Automatic annotation (TrEMBL):
Coiled coil: none annotated. SMART domains: TPR. The keyword DNA damage does not apply. Keywords: Metal-binding, Repeat, TPR repeat, Zinc, Zinc-finger. This is MYND-type domain-containing protein.
Length: 156
């Protein structure tokens, strides 16, 4: 039986511990799920796998791969749960984080504003998630040289 590893740490780790963060294993599972029949259970499984892979790719600075996974998960979340779900807010903020790492401030600002709108609707204006997303918007505006940044920090 052939054994594949996602990296050298994977080779040294104990499988039960490493399995949760093994990109090779998760990619294999994702391809298996994509090959099956349509249905909500399949879509939910793909959503979860894409979210996990997106996080792992982001941790390994594989931003293009992370973006691809987050965008797929976001599309599934909108299709299954609608625009105003917490998962849409989380994935939008994750995409914003990736765009900041890539110095794509316009894209980051767009995603952070989306996350902010969804958080306000889902959690209300007094939520910690709203404050976090206001800070993210402020950081983007500041990095772009926009004077409105300080107002966002104060609002947060």
């Amino acid at each position: 039986k052939a054994v594949f590893y996602c990296n050298s740490r994977c080779q040294r780790a104990s499988w039960p511990e490493h399995r949760k963060v093994c990109t090779f294993d998760l990619e294999r599972k994702l391809e298996q799920k994509r090959g099956r029949d349509e249905g909500n259970e399949r879509s939910i499984a793909i959503f979860e796998l894409c979210g996990k892979l997106g996080c792992l790719y982001e941790q390994h600075d594989l931003f293009k791969d992370a973006e691809e996974m987050y965008l797929e998960a976001l599309g599934i979340a909108v299709a299954l749960q609608g625009e105003w779900s917490e998962n849409v807010a989380i994935l939008s903020a994750n995409l914003g984080n990736i765009y900041v790492q890539q110095e794509r401030m316009d894209d980051a600002l767009r995603m952070y504003k989306r996350a902010l709108r969804v958080c306000r609707r889902v959690h209300g204006d007094e939520s910690g998630q709203v404050a976090l997303n206001l800070c993210n918007v402020g950081i983007c505006l500041r990095r772009k040289g926009d004077e409105r940044a300080m107002a966002k920090y104060e609002e947060a």
